[in-house]
Amino acid sequence: MTPISLTSVSLTSVDDPRIAAFRDVRERDLTGREGLFIAEGEVVLNVLTSAWSRCRARAVLLADKRLPKLEPVLARLDADVPIYTAPQEVVDGIAGFHLHRGILALGEKPEPLDLDAFLAGRPERSVLVGTVGIGNADNMGGIFRNAAALGACGVLVDPACCDPFYRKAIRVSVGAVLRTPIASDVSATVMVERAEAHGYVPLALTPGEGPDLTDLEPPQRALVLLGSEGPGLPREVLARARPVRIPMASGFDSLNVAATSAIVLHHLTRR
Q: What number is the average pLDDT over the span 27-38?
């Protein structure tokens, strides 16, 4: 096998201006990065550099001990993407916390989707996910992971949701956020209106009254609407969508929203 030859830049200082985008990661997570995001860990880097990714890497920062193992993954990067390496303590100082994975990448979000064009181009049988008010990054990441694993063709995200490109959401999704078509800042009402215009049946997941999921014959095209835990979906959305409930043991009426997404998507995509 021919050895892989990569060019990397070795750093010795946390103050090097070339890695400013990686500095104080947690604080920057809260303020946003204007179209960019931070990806963390080997699994996510593997997705970011894969043919499946809808995003482009802009730079990579590694603990120097990680470089040899990651060379096959890093070889997929465009030639103009810098690879910075540093001792673990320098990487920790740049990030602002102990980065035990020792792997960060700066990525560029994909161009916004044209929602109507996207919906018109979906297969005759397809399932969409609509997230409404999902503020928890773990739940958001879990929903994207389930959507990718179970064959949903895209995720619609309303303005009250947390950013799917938040570092923790990407990590929990095991990189699914980076490869899933996303339409952001779409209100729940618009989700329903545009999806119905393209033949999708909106299904509102609710613990309240409604037919059991097990009795639902999956429609050709379905939009699965998931609300935040507690408040759930807005009334105006429930009024326009078909309510569906997951039957549960007596005395308990709530599943984690990410777990709910897995159960519903499995039912819709495997029938």
A: 78
